[in-house]
Amino acid sequence: MPYDSGMIFGGGTADDAGDIGVSLDNLGELDRVLASAAQRREAHLYELAYSLVRSLPEPSLGALSESYRETAQRLTASLCGSASELFPPRSLRDGVNPIGAPELLGIYDRVTLVRGLYGALGERGLAAVCPDGLLGAYISPTELVRVCYMQNGYSDLAAEFFTPYLCTAPDGFTRVYSGSPEQACGEVEQGSAQYCILPIEDLSEGRLSGAERLIRRYDLHIAMTVSLMPRGMVFALLRRSCCRIGSAGDGALSYELHSDESGIGTEQIIAAARMLGLPLSRADSHRTEYDSTRLLHSLRFGVPEGGERSAELLGLLLLLEKRDYAPVGFYRSAERDISGAM
User: Fold this and answer.
1) Within 13 Å and on the Cβ side, how many CA atoms surround 323?
2) Are strands 206-207 and 195-202 parallel, antiparallel or unpaired?
3) How large is the average pLDDT for residues 55-76?
4) Which residue in 198, 202, 201, 203 sits closest to 220, CA to CA?
């Protein structure tokens, strides 16, 4: 009932108390109906995912992406034409409010559909869709490794830290010293070195803009980082493709990506990651070099230990939503105390 300044308060009767109880019972029943509808919707989305995979002539990324995008667009259009009250309650609990943010409408369905596709494809199907893996290949130490960086005391300490993860040779990897960060990145781009080491972040000031530009310009991917404490300078080990280095105990896991506004938007990515249990740990925005009116967003999500599957699901979602998508890296961030080392 609308608020009425002339309403008389007090003097309630037993009938009023009974009406309150009936209203609460009705709301409880409605919650049960909505929860049941959400469960049925999820089951239908999984069934839809398996049907999509079975309908593919071959398990390729192109065929899967085309089928997925068409289906996702139809799902979103259907939701836009429905009452907002019918939106799955689970998505509301996960922080997606379609009433206040129309651009997030349908992200619950897309995440659920991708969960279903992941299961329907299985290991063989995922390998066909993404031969290099959704998070990159595992890297083991080898004998012959070339690493390029600008030589100074801090870079030498970072290189010393990375050595056992890369090389089995007694003398460590072959060090190629460069005259500039650009030259170090160029050595990797040209294949003269497998890795380069760059300072990418100051823990007190954030990501270094120059390093961010080099990562994008040379299309490099973070394999691992180390924070030299108490200095607070973060050095990254970079390479031409995504990879996975280290194991539990070697530092916290992160999943990092760049997002422009093509395909799925940045707010949708953050909402999807939250649904998958991947909290946002850093977000920066930069103007693109090719168009100063456009922004490129750098997003880093924390990955709980054992949460690789959630990161793979987010990667599969973005691979299907964005053409030519590749993550900046799925990597561990370690710390090294250099007190007394300099």
Assistant:
1) 4
2) antiparallel
3) 89
4) 198
Residue 281, classed as helix, strand or coil, is: strand
**Separation of alpha carbons 96 and 160, rounded Å:** 45
Q: What is the pTM of this model?
A: 0.84
Backbone angles phi, psi at 242, to 5 degrees: -65, 150
H or E element that contains 108: helix 107-129
Can you spell out the DSSP letters for 3-29? Answer: --TTPPPS---HHHHHHHHHHHHHHHH
Strand extents, DSSP E, 94-145: 137-138
Tens digit of each residue's pLDDT (9 = 90 or more) over 15-41: 666 778 888 888 889 889 888 888 998
∠ Cα 296 67 254 (to 5°): 40
Non-local CB neighbours of 195 within 8 Å, separated by 6+ positions: 145, 146, 147, 148, 162, 166, 188, 223, 237, 238, 239
Report the alpha-carbon angle 94-96-97, nearest 5. Answer: 135
* Residue type for position 73: Q
Q: Rounded CA gap, 132 and 253, in Å?
A: 19
